[in-house]
Structure formats: structure tokens, C-alpha cells
Amino acid sequence: MQRYFIKEKKETLTSAITITGDDVHHISRVMRMKPGSSLICCTSDGQVAQCEIEEVNEDSILCRIVEWQNIDHELPVSVTIASGLPKGDKLEWIFQKGTELGAASFIPFNAARSVVKIDSKKAPKKVERWRKIVKEASEQSYRNLIPEVHEPAGWNKLLEISKSFDLKIVAYEESAKKDELSNLAKALNTAIPGQSILVVFGPEGGLTEEEIKQLTDTDFIVCGLGPRILRTETAPLYVLSAISYNFELSR
Question: Which of 232, 201, 236, 200 is nearest to 99 (CA)?
Fold first, then answer.
């Protein structure tokens, strides 16, 4: 059943939901839904309602709530992926696939070795596109919530943001080269459902020794991701898969 996200919380709704914005065109023109058609609406607090369309208007869709469903497709822990700005469309790939794998939010940041630098004037348009990619991926993968996409952060801003997380991990290829294979598992085994996890990944050239030092000085755990060296766009997906296995599939 087609899934749409609304801005309201469950507590503010009674028996009806009004869908507005770009989804109106998708429902009426792309999916060609009519009164009587069924769809799923997800509230901003992650609640899921099965609905039936009552009215299709030019700028809104009025839906009747049929029933609230007790469904949770979110990871038991809240995982934020912080990626050093990579080249090309790799960041969009991370956002799309990371959303499918359960990431709660994304923080792109300017690392010392980032070749790409996003101008502050262009950032809002970039972020708007990224959020659209994440929204569509959330609908496709039956998420309860749309992950948050932050505006590109500087290095000091990333360090400041990291202070609010329960568990902080940095993926470092030099650790993998030295056959470090256990830190990720050990770190995840210390986490409990409901906690927040921040995982930092460098751009194509990796993180510098100074960046790693600053991270470890602020309680980051340095982890290798197995014996093979992963690309900057592959590493976040590896970690999200490991987190899913640790908290969902192995229990």
C-alpha cells in the first residue's frame, strides 16, 4: 500500500488526515487514486494509520482514518551517519541506501581531505534535493520516520554536535590495515535500545591523523570494518547492516 508522510503528530489528529504539498500530485495524477482508495499515512512522531480517501481536491487530499497500526520499522537505536563530503553523487547514494537500512539522520561535513566544498549559497538547494531523496527512500522502504538531513557542517561544528550522542564511532582504514577486527562489535555490544549512535566516515582520501586524534580525544571509538578497505560510500552501509544484525536479526 502506498505510504505518505504528514507533518502532524498522532495526538493532534481525530478521525481525518489532510495531505498537502507535492504528494497531492503524486496521489491524484501519478497513482490516479480516487475516493475509496486506500493508503498509509505516517505521522511526524512515527505512528502509522491506514486511511481511505474521501475527497481529491486540486491542492489537498482528505482522508478518513480507518485504523491505527502498531507497526515499527525503525532500528532499535538511533543511528546518525556523518560523511566527509565525497565527490560526484556518492553522497546521494549514501542518503538513499542509508535510509533503506535504517539511519535516523545524516550529517555531511567538510573534512580536511574533502575535494568537494559546498558553497553556503548553494547549500539550501543541495539540502532540499537530499531531503527529497531521503523522503522517497523512506516511502519505498516502509519507514515510520523520514531521516533528518543536516546542512553541511564544518569540522568544529561536527565535534560540537557529537557531544549529545551516547556512543560515538569513527571508521578508520588504518585500523583495518592493522587487522583490527573487534572494536565495532565491542562498541555495539555496549549499546542498548533507545540510545543514539554517531558514526563518522572520511571522504575518499580518508580522515587525517589529526582528525582521528581530535575524535578520540572526544570519546570516539576507532574501528576497522573488516580486513577489506571499503569505499567511502560503501562503509556507512556496512555499519548500518552490522547494527541491524546486532540489534534486530541476531536476537
Answer: 236
Hey, is 47 helix, strand or coil? Answer: coil
Interatomic CA distance for residues 120 and 52, integer angstroms: 43
Region for residue 223 given its phi and psi (left: phi exceeds 0; alpha: psi -120 to 50; beta: otherwise):
beta
Are 43 and 79 in contact by the 8 Å Cβ rule? The answer is: no
Taking only the tens place, the pLDDT of each residue in 144-166 is 999 999 999 999 999 999 999 99
Whats the size of the chain, residue-wise? 251
Residue found under cell 590495515: 177
φ, ψ (nearest 5 deg) of residue 32: 55, 45
CA 133/CA 96 separation, integer angstroms: 6
Nearest-CA neighbor of 107 among 243, 2, 201, 9?
201
d(CA 202, CA 216): 15
**Helix segments in the chain, DSSP class H:** 22-25, 90-100, 123-140, 155-162, 173-177, 183-190, 209-216, 235-244
pTM of the entire structure?
0.94
The pLDDT of residue 74 is 98
